[in-house]
Amino acid sequence: MMIRILVAAAALTVAPSAPAQQTDWVKVRAEWNQPMAPFRILGNVHYVGTAGISAYLLTSPQGHILIDGGMAESAPLIAANIEKLGFKLADVKILLVNHAHWDHAGGLAELKRRTGARLLASAAEVPALESGRSDYRPDISISAPGVKVDGVLKDGEEIRLGTNTLVTHLTPGHTKGCTSFSTQIPSGGDSLTVLFACSLSVADQPLTPGHGYDAAPADFRATFAKLRATQADVFLSFHAQQFDLALKRAKQVAGDTEAFVDPGELRRRVDAAQAAFDAEMQRKTNR
Length: 287
Known about the structure:
By secondary structure, the protein is of the alpha/beta class. Helices cover 28% and strands 23% of the residues. It has eight helices and 13 strands. The strands form two sheets. It has a seven-stranded mixed beta sheet with strand order 2-3-4-5-6-7-8, with helices on one face. Strands 9-10-11-12-1-13 form a six-stranded mixed beta sheet, with no helix packed on it. Helix 6 packs antiparallel against helix 8 (265-285). The termini are far apart.
């Protein structure tokens, strides 16, 4: 029996932009960074993020892979969550990131220091990761600590560590180098295909020419098509509220072993993301 799991890396559907309002980022960051107890989702995939920003640990006897570092202030919580599950930080050998925005890459430098792991990323994300700031999003005023990238990933490249093999899929749009990863893991006699996916949100991404990423609309459309062609039974995201993490975890704790299983969720998420993208394109075209 084949079960497919999709983990979405970026923020998901965003409605067409309303009139600009000042965001209280101090409040938002504090809310996102509330602690959350770590837990096993399925197989060797574990949740080690905060209440608002997700991070995932893939374990094996030979070492572990950590996907995403949250915000800068999230790093201590993620490190503590790994240890609460009974794993050693020194056994985290590889760090990955779905994209280089501050709320997902901010904790990577500290987590790299604590674990000694190698950071791998797509070529298009390297400048933002190492500088801590996007070179084509002047609207993003929040920076992240710069972090050295140790290896550049190409589309289709395999990342092997112990019993884990992750395949790299470049899925740009949300950023130039948004990266998805897929892997197969055994769980209860089933073969689990896990896809960590990126680029399901516009999130104020400039979609008109002249902002340094003129290919963004075409990249979004190609990524939507790629993800729509993917089958998945479980959909997860790197912003907890965008895949109902609290609700699903509560069901799991209550004994529902399939709390994260929803074969139709991926299609609904992609459809909603594309609808939001199309509306935003229409709004900007009509300006």
